[in-house]
C-alpha cells in the first residue's frame, strides 16, 4: 500500500509524475503496490503458485484443467475469478490453447475492470483508462502483433468475456505494452506480467532514484539514492548497461520518448562502455563505428554458441573485454553454456562479466546482484563453497537495499549459505 509522503504533479516535459514530500534514505521502502491484474507465465506453471507467486514444491493441481497449481485451497479459491477465464478453454483446446501472455493479461484486466473501478476511485489509485497508450504512434509491426493478440483474445476467451469495440481493444493492448511490468525472480528470470497503475506514474531516468522489485505479486518501490522533499521519483524503464544512443533508441521504440537526464546529456559513461583495445596504432573512428553497427546487428540476430564465439572473436579485435557489446555476447554465451550444462564454461564467462558490470551499472543494480547469485550457485554446485559464499554475500549487499532485508529471497539465500 502507498505510504504518506507523495504527491502527483505535472513533470515538465514528461506529463504526470510522482514526487516525495518527505525524505527517504537508501534502501527505504517508498510504497508497495498490489497488482491491478497479473498473470503467471505458462512456462513457470508447476513451479509457482498461480495466485500468490510463491515458489514451492508439491503444489496442488487444479482438478479440472490439471495445468494450474496452487499453494492450497485458499489460493485456488482466490484465483478462481481469473482462472475460470482459462480453465475450461485449456481443457477444450488442449495443445491448441496458445494465447500470448499479453492476451492473457488483457483478458484478466477486462474481467477485473468493473469490480476494481470503485476501489481505485476510493483509494485514489490511477485508473487503467488514465494510462498512456501511444496508440497513434504504434508502427505497423506492433499493430500487427496487437491484431494477432486481439484475435487470440476472441478465440480463447469469448465464452467468459464481453469485449469492447476494436478501437478500445487496440488502445488497451497499447496501454499494456507501455505500462506493463515484467515480474522477475532473484536471478531476473521472467515469471509473469502485471499492471501496477500507481507505479506506472513514475517517470524514467537513466540515473534512477528508486528501484522496483517484487514480493509475490506486489511491486515494491525502494530508494537507491538518498532523497529529499520535492525530488521526483524516477525509475529506469530499460537496461542501463548500454551507451546513450542505444538506450534512447530503445526508449523511442518502446515508450516513444527520448531521455534528457544528466547522464544522457553528459554521456559520461559512454567512453567506458565503448572501450576499445589498446594497440600501438590507434584504431580509426570509422573502424569503431563499423564494429558498433556489427555488434548491434549481431545482438539482434544471434542464436547459437558458434555465433557467440565467432562474434566475440570478431568484436574482440577492436573492442576491450569490458565493452558493453562484448559483455552482452558473453552473457548470451553464458546462457548457452548453462543450457548445454557446461558449468565450467558458464563460470568462465560469468567471471569475465562481473567486474565490468559492477563499474558500468548504477549502485544497487539487480543485474549485478543476479550475476553474483548465478555465479554463487554455480560455485556451490562445483564444490567451491568459499567462493560461492563470497558471491552470495556480495549479492546480499545489493538485495538488502533493492528488496529489503526481510524479503523472502534474502531468507532463502541465508538458507542456501547455511547448507553443507
UniProtKB/TrEMBL annotation:
It is found in: Cytoplasm, Cytosol; Nucleus. It comes from the Eukaryota. It catalyses: L-lysyl-[protein] + S-adenosyl-L-methionine = N(6)-methyl-L-lysyl-[protein] + S-adenosyl-L-homocysteine + H(+); L-lysyl(4)-[histone H3] + 3 S-adenosyl-L-methionine = N(6),N(6),N(6)-trimethyl-L-lysyl(4)-[histone H3] + 3 S-adenosyl-L-homocysteine + 3 H(+). Keywords: Chromatin regulator, Cytoplasm, Metal-binding, Methyltransferase, Nucleus, S-adenosyl-L-methionine, Transcription, Transcription regulation, Transferase, Zinc, Zinc-finger. PANTHER family: HISTONE-LYSINE N-METHYLTRANSFERASE SMYD (PTHR12197), N-LYSINE METHYLTRANSFERASE SMYD2-B (PTHR12197:SF290). Protein-lysine N-methyltransferase that methylates both histones and non-histone proteins, including p53/TP53 and RB1. Specifically trimethylates histone H3 'Lys-4' (H3K4me3) in vivo. The activity requires interaction with HSP90alpha. Shows even higher methyltransferase activity on p53/TP53. Monomethylates 'Lys-370' of p53/TP53, leading to decreased DNA-binding activity and subsequent transcriptional regulation activity of p53/TP53. Monomethylates RB1 at 'Lys-860'. This is [histone H3]-lysine(4) N-trimethyltransferase. The lineage of its organism: Eukaryota, Metazoa, Chordata, Craniata, Vertebrata.
Amino acid at each position: 500500500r502507498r505510504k504518506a509522503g507523495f504527491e502527483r504533479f505535472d513533470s515538465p516535459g514528461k506529463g504526470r509524475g510522482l514526487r516525495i514530500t518527505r525524505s527517504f534514505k537508501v534502501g527505504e521502502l517508498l510504497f508497495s503496490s498490489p497488482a491491478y491484474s497479473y498473470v503467471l507465465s505458462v512456462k513457470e506453471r508447476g513451479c509457482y503458485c498461480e495466485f500468490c507467486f510463491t515458489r514451492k514444491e508439491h503444489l496442488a493441481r487444479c482438478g479440472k484443467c490439471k495445468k494450474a497449481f496452487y499453494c492450497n485451497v485458499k489460493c485456488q479459491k482466490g484465483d478462481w475469478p481469473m482462472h475460470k477465464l482459462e480453465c475450461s478453454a485449456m481443457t477444450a483446446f488442449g495443445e491448441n490453447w496458445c494465447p500470448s501472455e499479453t492476451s492473457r493479461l488483457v483478458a484478466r484486466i477486462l474481467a477485473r475492470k468493473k469490480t476494481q473501478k470503485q476501489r481505485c476511485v476510493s483509494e485514489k489509485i490511477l485508473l487503467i483508462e488514465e494510462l498512456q497508450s501511444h496508440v497513434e504512434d504504434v508502427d505497423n509491426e506492433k499493430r500487427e502483433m496487437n491484431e494477432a493478440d486481439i484475435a487470440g483474445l476472441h478465440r480463447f476467451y469469448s465464452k467468459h468475456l464481453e469485449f469492447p469495440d476494436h478501437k478500445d481493444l487496440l488502445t488497451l493492448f497499447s496501454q499494456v505494452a507501455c505500462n506493463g511490468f515484467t515480474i522477475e525472480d532473484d536471478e531476473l528470470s521472467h515469471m509473469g506480467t502485471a499492471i501496477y497503475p500507481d507505479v506506472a506514474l513514475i517517470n524514467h531516468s537513466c540515473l534512477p532514484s528508486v528501484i522496483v522489485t517484487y514480493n509475490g505479486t506486489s511491486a515494491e518501490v525502494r530508494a537507491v539514492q538518498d532523497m529529499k522533499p520535492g525530488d521526483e521519483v524516477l525509475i529506469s524503464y530499460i537496461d542501463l548497461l548500454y551507451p546513450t544512443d542505444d538506450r534512447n533508441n530503445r526508449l523511442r521504440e518502446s515508450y516513444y520518448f527520448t531521455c534528457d537526464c544528466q547522464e544522457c546529456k553528459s554521456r559520461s559513461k559512454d567512453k567506458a562502455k565503448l572501450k576499445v583495445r589498446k594497440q600501438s596504432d590507434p584504431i580509426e573512428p570509422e573502424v569503431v563505428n563499423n564494429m558498433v553497427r556489427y555488434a548491434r546487428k549481431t545482438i539482434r540476430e544471434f542464436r547459437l554458441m558458434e555465433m557467440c564465439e565467432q562474434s566475440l572473436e570478431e568484436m574482440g579485435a577492436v573492442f576491450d573485454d569490458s565493452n558493453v557489446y562484448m559483455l552482452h555476447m558473453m552473457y548470451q554465451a553464458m546462457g548457452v553454456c548453462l543450457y548445454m550444462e557446461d558449468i565450467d564454461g558458464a563460470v568462465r564467462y560469468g567471471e569475465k562479466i562481473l567486474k565490468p558490470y559492477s563499474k558500468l551499472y548504477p549502485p544497487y543494480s539487480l543485474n549485478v546482484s543476479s550475476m553474483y547469485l548465478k555465479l554463487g550457485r554455480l560455485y556451490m554446485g562445483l564444490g567451491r563453497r568459499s567462493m560461492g559464499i563470497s558471491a552470495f554475500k556480495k549479492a546480499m549487499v545489493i538485495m538488502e537495499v533493492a528488496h529489503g532485508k526481510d524479503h523472502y529471497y534474502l531468507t532463502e539465500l541465508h538458507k542456501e549459505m547455511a547448507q553443507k
